[in-house]
Design goal:
25% strand; five-stranded antiparallel sheet; 31% helix; 294 residues; 10 helices; single chain; globular; alpha+beta; four-stranded antiparallel sheet
Length: 294
């Protein structure tokens, strides 16, 4: 367990930024990982009084405050409806509900951990990060940067119409992932993210081609480097990435096919205007697709 000399619940981002310029001071979110460390810290800087723990939605984007818990991300109706439940999928294996109630989105993204499900998932969306001094930049650019003393204020995910899917493999249910894969499609472009390689997730963008999905998955997986650690070897991770990317591509194809079928299906009689006539019951509607398991 670490020790700290002082604790400060700041009243503004400017106050937090000034305190954070001293190297011994540290910004704290849920402290889920920090509390496992050792050593002496200067001042713990707490942002919890700044109202940055909410998810805001409008017609154009989602705005996720840095102090928003992973549990809120997991259960947010708007996010999961728009992105086909990928945020529920990317969070549900992270330790347990109590942990997710404490861990924050800001800590997960700013940390840029190699095992981060949140980073791997958000990279395939049109995600941006708002930095206090650095402005608003694409998440992919931020993920590739070196660490600095700026403050991540919020993550912004734009509603650009892309469809996305996400999956991980773990050796046990709440362990760190062996591999984490995300895929999104918009118009004629695929967006790939592979994390836990065991390096941090990175974004690869490729055009949709006439090649088989298996071949497109192979080329996407080969764009990454893979390494060994106690959970898996590099070649095994490479194989998993190729298999899971193919499965996610197939899932997106099925989603597009289903959407096309729904668009061409006549409107049920029960939803048309006009009087209801006894004996003319509408045909039972088909239920929506269950989330595919892999």
């Amino acid at each position: 367990m670490f020790r700290a000399k002082e604790y400060k619940k700041v009243e503004s981002l400017e106050e937090a930024y000034e305190l954070n310029q001293k190297r011994s001071n540290v910004l704290v979110g849920g402290m889920m990982w920090l509390k496992m460390g050792r050593g002496q810290k200067g001042t713990l800087i707490d942002l919890s009084g700044l109202g940055l723990d909410q998810i805001q939605e409008d017609d154009k984007e989602f705005r996720i405050g840095c102090m928003c818990s992973l549990r809120k991300l997991e259960t947010h109706k708007g996010l999961n409806e728009y992105f086909d439940n990928i945020f529920r999928e990317c969070t549900r294996h992270i330790v347990g509900t109590q942990f997710r109630n404490g861990a924050t989105v800001g800590g997960s993204i700013f940390g840029r951990f190699g095992f981060s499900d949140i980073l791997a998932c958000m990279l395939v969306t049109d995600a941006w990060v708002e930095l206090y001094k650095g402005g608003t930049i694409p998440l992919a650019e931020f993920a590739a940067r070196a660490y600095d003393r700026d403050i991540l204020v919020r993550v912004i995910i734009r509603k650009d119409g892309r469809k996305a899917a996400y999956i991980t493999q773990r050796n046990s249910r709440t362990d760190f992932p062996v591999i984490a894969c995300g895929v999104a499609r918009k118009d004629g472009t695929y967006y790939f993210s592979v994390g836990a390689r065991p390096a941090k997730a990175a974004l690869v963008v490729r055009p949709v081609t006439g090649e088989s999905l298996a071949e497109q998955a192979r080329k996407a997986a080969e764009a990454y480097n893979y390494g060994d650690n106690m959970r898996a070897g590099g070649e095994y991770r490479r194989h998993l990435a190729q298999v899971y990317i193919r499965r996610l591509l197939e899932r997106l194809e099925q989603t597009d096919h289903k959407a096309g079928e729904d668009a061409g299906r006549p409107e049920p009689e029960s939803q048309k205007s006009g009087p209801w006539v006894a004996g003319q019951e509408p045909e039972a509607g088909r239920s929506g697709p269950a989330q595919e398991g892999v």
